[in-house]
Amino acid sequence: MPQDMPPVGGYDPIQYKRNLPARGFRPSVYLLGTALIMTYGFWKYGKGVREMNELAREKMWARIHLTPALQAEEDRDQVRRYLADRKREVELMGSETKVYHTDRFVRPTFAITPENETK
């Protein structure tokens, strides 16, 4: 019986590597896309921080400019209360009395108390 021999020219090479198609983009494309997205995000964040700082600065300067007006309003209210208290004192006591033994002005302190006490 004759022995089987290989074909003339030999057999085809054996495919031992996997032949998988590349899925998606190259890693450098993903890296570039991520870098672009992060750059845009940091840029927007920086703009937001600058906007918040500007609003805080504007709020601070508004308070600085309003402080004298608010202080003057409080002073006028204190003078009105003081004069009303002195007038009421003269009506009740018949004469003007001094709490302190000095002519120096002492800023009065008012404590607002409720009319009805609740427990």
TrEMBL record:
InterPro entries (UniProt xref): GRIM-19
Family of this protein: Belongs to the complex I NDUFA13 subunit family.
Topological type in the membrane: Single-pass membrane protein
Keywords assigned: Electron transport, Membrane, Mitochondrion, Mitochondrion inner membrane, Respiratory chain, Transmembrane, Transmembrane helix, Transport
Name under which the protein is recorded: NADH dehydrogenase [ubiquinone] 1 alpha subcomplex subunit 13
Cited PANTHER family: NADH DEHYDROGENASE [UBIQUINONE] 1 ALPHA SUBCOMPLEX SUBUNIT 13, NADH DEHYDROGENASE UBIQUINONE 1 ALPHA SUBCOMPLEX SUBUNIT 13
Positions of transmembrane segments: 25-43
Keyword RNA-binding carried by entry: no
Known role: Complex I functions in the transfer of electrons from NADH to the respiratory chain. Accessory subunit of the mitochondrial membrane respiratory chain NADH dehydrogenase (Complex I), that is believed not to be involved in catalysis.
Pfam families listed in its UniProt record: GRIM-19 (PF06212)
A Gene Ontology term for the protein's cellular component: mitochondrial inner membrane
Organism: Lophiotrema nucula
Cellular localisation: Mitochondrion inner membrane
